Amino acid sequence: VVENSLHMVQLLNACGNRDLPGIGLTLCLRDRGSLMEAERLGDEYREHILREISLLREQSRQMKNLRYLKRMNMEAGAIVSGLGIRYLYTDLPLVTLNHKDDMIKISARGNKPLIARGLDLSVALREAANAVGGNGGGHTIASGASIPPGREDEFLALLDRILDEQLNRGADASSRPVGDDA
């Protein structure tokens, strides 16, 4: 039914995002009847992503060590974080905070140059989320968390401090005089 694997992944992702896994399953079973509906869902999902990327460009805020976007009911927070760090804002970790279903869902993304400077989003999100009554973790370059509503600003302040320690640890060590082990 779908000859291009990337296109197939995008359609399946759209079906999952819309909580319609049955359409994705029938697509995998090569049911041509599901293709039109999957394509419609894919088009709709792409529109949401483009709209949220525009919101990122217009409404993102910057702290010393991170850039963030706070929204309600985002459709594609993780994708927006990933595209944003890759194509728009490569200098700082990018965090989306999405108030959805009585929880703040957080997605954070970094890149290889930030990791080379000491970034570990898994540790940073876990520590900041745990400190405000949530939980988090993931990978060095891509992590997520969930925190209770109303704790976003406290979470961001903690995360900024943790990222400051991570990203500036190498700079502090390289600025010491040679032979200074203090």
Lay out the secondary structure:
Layout: H1 5-17, H2 21-28, H3 35-59, E1 61-62, E2 67-72, H4 77-88, E3 94-100, E4 103-109, H5 112-116, H6 121-131, E5 135-138, E6 142-147, H7 152-174
Helix pairs in contact: 1-2, 1-3, 3-4, 6-7
Mind explaining what this structure looks like?
The chain is α+β, with helices and mostly antiparallel strands and 182 residues long. It has 2 domains: 5-49, no CATH class; 60-174, Diaminopimelate Epimerase, Chain A, domain 1, CATH 3.10.310. Helix content is 53%, strand content 18%. It contains 7 helices and 6 strands, in the order H-H-H-E-E-H-E-E-H-H-E-E-H. The protein has helices at 5-17, 21-28, 35-59, 77-88, 112-116, 121-131, 152-174, and strands at residues 61-62, 67-72, 94-100, 103-109, 135-138, 142-147. Strand 1 and strand 2 form a beta hairpin. Helix 1 runs antiparallel to helix 2, helix 1 (5-17) packs across helix 3 (35-59) and helix 6 (121-131) crosses helix 7 (152-174). It is elongated and about 55 Å long.
CATH architecture of the largest domain: Roll
* Overall morphology: elongated
**Helix and strand pattern:** HHHEEHEEHHEEH
Strand fraction band? 15-25%
Count of the domains = 2
Derived from helix and strand composition plus strand pairing, the structural class reads: alpha+beta
| Helix content percent band | 40-55%
Strands, count: 6
Q: Would you state the CATH class of the largest domain?
A: Alpha Beta
- CATH topology annotation of the largest domain: Diaminopimelate Epimerase, Chain A, domain 1
Strand order of the largest sheet: 1-2-3-4-6-5
What is the radius of gyration computed over CA atoms, rounded to a whole number of angstroms? Answer: 19 Å
- Head-to-tail CA distance between termini: 65 Å
Overall residue-averaged pLDDT value = 90
Give the number of helices.
Answer: 7
